[in-house]
Specification:
Elements: E1 2-3, H1 16-19, H2 44-50, H3 55-64, H4 67-71, E2 76-78, H5 83-93, H6 103-112, E3 114-115, E4 128-132, E5 138-142, E6 147-148, E7 157-158, E8 162-163, E9 171-173, E10 176-178, H7 192-198, H8 204-212, H9 225-230, E11 237-242, E12 255-259, E13 268-272, H10 275-281, H11 292-307, H12 310-315, H13 320-326, H14 338-344, E14 347-348, E15 372-375, E16 384-389, E17 403-406, E18 423-426, H15 431-434, E19 439-444, H16 452-458, E20 463-466, H17 467-470, H18 472-476, E21 505-507, E22 516-518, E23 523-527, E24 540-544, E25 549-553, E26 560-569, E27 576-581, E28 584-585, E29 590-591, H19 611-623, E30 626-628, E31 663-673, E32 680-687, E33 695-697, E34 699-704
Parallel strand pairs: 1-6, 2-10, 12-21, 13-19
Antiparallel strand pairs: 2-3, 4-5, 5-7, 7-8, 9-10, 11-12, 13-14, 15-16, 16-17, 17-18, 18-19, 20-34, 21-23, 22-25, 23-24, 24-33, 25-32, 26-31, 26-34, 27-28, 27-29, 27-32, 30-31
């Protein structure tokens, strides 16, 4: 183990105009005294006044003009740096005293050290946990146990630069909880191009290719000015949203308040292939003895190798004319160029600023399956698989247990029993080295390609896409995995208010989500994760309004014929919608008001079935157009997390999705995915209950028609 002595902080020139877009929200909610670690009767302002070791941070707060705010009521988490941390910061940046620090810098320093509307004790921190501070930038907290204090106790490190002081942590004040830290936490506020250029050592070939393809220029955007101009046309909050919750005629259901997104930010995630990986794995093309130009030319040749087959050319719109025009080393900025195609697939159209938020692992039983997300990239008509890989009894050759791989696949009958290892991802040591205000990059130990092998072996499987993951804006703007999703109680009274004590639910204004359209009457409602609810990962999308009509793109799966399914929870106060694929109606309207034990479905639940009986019942359900929920998704916690803030599946105490009648899947129809074509799905209401009667969407499944069915390895039992 290594002792904590000092952390260097790289203070990047702050973009004050952008950071000032994030403002404090006044809070009037009361705090639950029974949850306090201790109770001092102090506010955060009193805390700073009463302790000499925070006198310098107190001056920073005063200079920023937030003295009153720190004395007001609320429910926040504070990470104030001790005097030694402020002194170190001033020495590194040439300030003799706090009065020399510009007011706008003080404003930023204060906001960086606060998580608003969430009271977070260190007991809820995982090995690597991420929260968003008051300038909408991440605080990545690592509690790995490899860094200790002078007493040998493990430390929690924030952004690899500042440690929470063990002897002072979890100190409750009236408006939140205080975790004093050793150093000032300063975010990197540069844009993606600057971030990559400053950290190109060791990946010069990849960086040069990004630059020559013009992809770095596209990463110079951050805030959508058009949204800033029109967002005032929509209320900050929509109240009295009823998205379901009635299990009987006497239930009242759940009432929500939804927030309008503060901003529409653009963000990017880049998976960088280091030079050494290219030298090692593709030594027939790359060499440290070659010039940079020669190695970039070799990367072009590798791109031609990966995308030169006829199907790839069809998918990416390369006919004979475009091949003649753009299939050369002089047209690298064209999206029809092979190197441009190759590099674009390494860039995501969303900001994942830590590995911790790449996959929603809540509610996943990992001895049954690996938690997985399917995401779009900057390469049109492509999909990337992000998977947290666990060893299985029959296969123990994974080098990095319980870590993230891209485009990995176990051997199965669906890929010819040919395992695809995929690329393992890591991140640089210093957060400021790999993460900026609109971009983050991670290292991968192999290239990524949406090529024949990936399409035929990795993606010839059930592709289950979480609805909240489907839309990139929800990730980039901190609405996915937002709030205190570790709460065991699911729905809370705070969901009725504007305080956001445990995080906000959101509604989407028209035009906010790319490639999504809906009519004026529709409410596109995004629920924050609520553990214990009947949905995968705790979150879901709801469509409300007396006549909602919503259309969006289906995931960009490889060409072929697919069975399209939706996952949801049937309840008495749900709605009914006609579903269309490519504007063609798919059968009769879908009614969400009944569960899978209804006679129209034929599912048998709450009865012990033999394997043979279960298989027969699954066939009955399939014949009626339905499937059970996933066996690897647990849904109920029976208040397990009241004593343990990190919910864990306990056999006998929690039930899985396949055991609960409301949580099931319904076949919508079939779609023939054509090369180079986007396909859409549309939901038009035919029955609602005023402001209730929502249409719930938990996830969408795209299943190759030849492997769909009740039962079967890896397809629909998990």
């Amino acid at each position: 183990m290594k002792n904590l002595k000092s952390f260097s902080i790289s203070f990047i020139c702050l973009i004050v105009a952008l950071l000032s877009l994030s403002t404090f929200v006044a809070c009037n909610d009361s705090m639950d005294a029974e949850s306090y670690y201790t109770f001092t009767g102090e506010t955060m302002g009193d805390y700073l006044v009463n302790r000499e070791d925070f006198s310098l941070f107190k001056k920073v707060v005063e200079r920023a003009g937030y003295t009153h705010y720190f004395g007001a009521r609320g429910s926040h988490t504070f990470f104030p740096p001790i005097n030694a941390g402020i002194e170190k910061f001033m020495a590194e940046h040439g300030y003799e005293c706090v009065d020399d620090i510009p007011v706008e810098y003080c404003d930023t320093i204060v906001k960086v050290h606060m998580v608003e509307n969430l009271v977070l004790y260190t007991s809820v921190f995982g090995l690597e946990t991420q929260y968003t501070n008051a300038v909408d930038l991440p605080l990545i907290i690592k509690s790995l146990g490899d860094t200790v204090d002078i007493n040998g106790l493990a430390l929690s490190i924030i952004n690899n630069s500042s440690a929470i002081i063990n002897t002072l942590k979890n100190d409750t004040v009236e408006n939140g909880v205080v975790h004093p830290v050793t150093n000032v936490i300063v975010p990197n506020t540069s844009f993606g191009k600057e971030l990559l250029s400053k950290n190109s050592d060791g990946c010069k070939i990849f960086y040069a290719a990004l630059e020559r393809c013009g992809l770095l220029d596209s990463m110079q955007t951050y805030i959508d000015d058009k949204y800033e101009a029109v967002k005032g046309n929509y209320p900050e909050f929509k109240k009295k949203i009823y998205s379901g919750g009635k299990h009987s005629a006497t239930d009242k259901g759940y009432e929500y308040t939804a927030k309008r997104p503060d901003h529409r930010k653009m963000g990017y995630t880049i998976f960088v292939v280091p030079d050494e990986v290219l030298y090692d794995k593709y030594d027939y093309l790359f060499s440290p003895n070659k010039t940079l130009d020669e190695n970039v030319d070799a990367l072009y040749d590798l791109a031609c190798e990966k995308y030169g087959d006829p199907m790839s050319k069809q998918i990416f719109g390369i006919d004979n004319e475009k091949e003649e025009l753009y299939w050369n080393k002089d047209q690298l900025t064209s999206r029809f160029n092979p190197l441009n195609i190759f590099m674009s697939y390494h860039v995501l159209d969303r900001l994942f600023n830590s590995r911790d938020i790449m996959i929603n692992c809540w509610g996943q039983i990992t001895n049954f399956h690996n938690p997985t997300e399917w995401v779009s990239t900057m390469l049109d008509h492509s999909l990337l698989k992000i998977e947290k890989v666990y060893r299985r009894e029959e296969e123990r050759d994974v080098e990095f247990h319980a870590e993230i791989y891209l485009n990995h696949s176990y051997a199965s009958k669906y890929n010819g029993y040919s395992k695809v290892r995929g690329a393992h991802i890591t991140e640089p040591t210093d957060v400021n080295d790999y993460m900026s205000i609109n971009c983050a990059f991670f290292y991968v130990d192999d290239i990524l390609a949406f090529d024949t092998e990936t399409r035929n072996k990795v993606m010839n499987t059930r592709i289950r896409t979480d609805m909240v993951t489907l839309f990139p804006e929800l990730t980039t703007n901190n609405m996915r995995l937002h709030g205190n999703y570790r709460l065991a109680h699911g729905y809370t009274a705070e969901d009725n208010t504007e305080t956001g004590k445990n995080g906000f639910n959101y509604y989407m204004p028209p035009g906010y989500l790319k490639n999504v359209t809906f009519n004026e009457d529709a409410v596109f409602f995004v629920q924050r994760p609520k553990l214990g609810f009947w949905n995968m990962g705790g979150d879901e999308i709801n469509f409300l309004g007396s006549s909602y009509d919503v259309r969006f793109r289906l995931p960009a799966v490889p060409p072929g014929t697919y069975e399209v399914r939706i996952g949801y929870a049937g309840m008495l106060d749900r709605g009914i919608a006609q579903i269309y694929i490519d504007d063609v109606p798919q059968g009769i309207p879908v009614d969400l008001r009944f569960a899978a034990d209804d006679a129209r479905v034929g599912g048998i639940y709450d009865v012990e079935l033999t394997d043979e009986e279960l298989a027969e019942n699954n066939r009955t359900m399939k014949n009626n157009g339905f499937y059970r929920g996933g066996k690897g998704i647990y849904m109920e916690y029976h208040r397990v997390a009241e004593k343990n803030p990190i919910p864990t599946y306990v056999p006998g105490q929690g039930r899985t999705s396949d055991k609960i009648a409301p949580t099931h899947r319904r076949k919508v129809g079939d779609v023939n995915v054509e090369p180079g074509k986007h396909h859409t799905i549309r939901f038009r209401s035919v029955y609602t209950l005023g402001n209730s009667g929502c249409f719930m969407l938990d996830y969408i499944e795209m299943v190759p028609i030849e492997i769909s069915g009740a039962g079967g390895l890896g397809e629909d039992v998990y």
